[in-house]
């Protein structure tokens, strides 16, 4: 319809658990797709400001898997946080 903007489905996958993270990382690895992960929090304005840019990148690079993790929505223990880091050795926490 004229005057209405067409919105496509997001290519960014929202990850809400370690199991979901492992599934999507394994799927991308099997397909040979690079992975770009955005770890964010709703209270962190720079990460919120990055969301539209991240969506645009996902639209532009169809052969890349884009994963988004809201660190506050993924409730887990410190031991599970370590598992997130060990799940993919490319993920590191800078201290």
From TrEMBL:
Domain of life: Eukaryota
Protein name as it appears in the record: Thioredoxin-like protein CXXS1 isoform X3
SUPFAM superfamilies: Thioredoxin-like (SSF52833)
Transmembrane segments: none
Pfam families the UniProt entry points to: Thioredoxin
Thioredoxin domain sequence ranges: 16-80
